[in-house]
Structure to design on (249 residues):
């Protein structure tokens, strides 16, 4: 039974998926399975994944019956995951080689239901852009409502501590998941080490600031059912942190 199940949705990333998989294969920690749920790609993405699986059975391809977006693809991978720990990695992002090893040791030390790390941005040619995105040492539910600190590619969930894991079919399904875990009374812990590379692409789902803001507001009101006043208070803090996070120095 693999200790870490890596959850990856994919859609039309034939030029990037092989490098993403290679960043997982290069991990110093090797007891993992990579579950890639392909969301009806129309390019060579599924074939590339299938070819890699022939050489490395830890890589698994899940084909979605119809295109439903990242949340449903992630849930399909979670439904087949065998590991105690779930790690999340989108199909255009990268991990540094010690990511899993360092974060697992940290999560076990903290007995963390949810942990996350620092990271840097890269562009489509793998050039690092901007500063190191550092993370707070810990986050509660109330603090996360006002924060953007947990990037999907840095998150790791201990299912034995966190409890049931279910993605909501929302724009920011990952944000919803982190909130659902912390709402049970857990605290998330941050490892402030540079261990991942978040790729900024014009076509990525979360690349438009106004749309991202709309999604967050909808989560406050429709998912978390916060009052208008509390929603506005959290949104003001979230917006300020999102602006700072997008700045490039």
């Amino acid at each position: 039974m693999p200790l870490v199940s890596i959850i990856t949705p994919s859609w039309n990333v034939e030029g990037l998926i092989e490098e993403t998989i290679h960043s997982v294969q290069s991990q110093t920690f090797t007891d993992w399975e990579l579950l890639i749920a392909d969301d009806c790609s129309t390019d060579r993405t599924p074939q590339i994944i299938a070819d890699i699986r022939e050489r490395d059975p830890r890589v698994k391809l899940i084909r979605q019956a119809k295109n439903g977006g990242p949340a449903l693809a992630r849930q399909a991978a979670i439904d087949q995951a065998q590991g105690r720990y779930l790690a999340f990695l989108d199909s255009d992002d990268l991990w540094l080689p010690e990511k899993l090893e360092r974060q697992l040791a940290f999560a076990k030390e903290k007995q963390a239901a949810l942990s996350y790390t620092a990271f840097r941005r890269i562009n489509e040619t793998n050039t690092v852009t901007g500063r190191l995105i550092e993370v707070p040492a810990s986050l509660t539910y109330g603090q996360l409502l006002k924060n953007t600190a947990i990037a999907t590619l840095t998150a790791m969930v201990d299912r034995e501590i966190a409890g049931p894991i279910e993605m909501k079919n929302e724009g920011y399904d990952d944000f919803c998941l982190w909130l659902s875990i912390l709402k049970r009374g857990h605290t998330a812990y941050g490892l402030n080490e540079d261990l991942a590379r978040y790729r900024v692409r014009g076509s990525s789902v979360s690349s438009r600031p106004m749309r991202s803001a709309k999604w967050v507001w909808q989560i406050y009101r429709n998912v978390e059912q916060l009052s208008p006043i509390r929603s506005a208070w959290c949104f003001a803090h979230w917006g300020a942190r999102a602006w700072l996070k997008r700045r490039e120095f």
The first strand starts at residue 4 and ends at 10. The beta strands are 4-10, 32-38, 59-63, 85-88, 94-95, 114-122, 128-133, 138-139, 156-158, 188-199.
